[in-house]
Amino acid sequence: MLIARLLIFATLGIALIALVIYMRTGDVRYKRLAVVLIKWTIFAALGFFAVLIGLNLSDAPG
């Protein structure tokens, strides 16, 4: 779980750096890279939390 959190925050940090580079240079490819990184990070986070919810529901009594 720690590794997943670190990977999510690392990709968000890389996207932030790409956005800063885009603001400094105006090069559109950095903006596209940041948007793609943010999109896939959100998808990965949603999948991660879906697995956690599924694990918690499978362990629930009843």
Q: Can you walk through the features of this model?
A:
This protein is mostly helical and 62 residues long. The chain has one domain. Helix content is 90%, strand content 0%. The chain contains 2 helices and no strands. The protein has helices at residues 2-25, 28-59. Helix 1 runs antiparallel to helix 2. It is elongated. The two termini are 26 Å apart.
Q: Biggest sheet: strands, sense, closure?
A: none
Shape by Cα distribution: elongated
First-last Cα distance = 26 Å
**What structural category arises from helix and sheet content?**
mainly alpha
Residue windows where pLDDT falls under 50 for at least 5 positions? none
What letter string, H or E per element, gives the SSE order? HH
Work out the number of β strands: 0
Count of discrete domains: 1
Oligomer: single chain
**Contiguous helical run count:** 2
In what range is the share of β-strand residues? under 5%
Q: Return Rg in Å.
A: 16 Å
Tell me roughly what share of residues is in helical segments: over 70%
Q: How confident overall, as mean pLDDT?
A: 92
Give a quick rundown of the structure:
With 62 residues, the protein is an all-alpha fold. The chain is built from two helices and no strands. It has one domain.
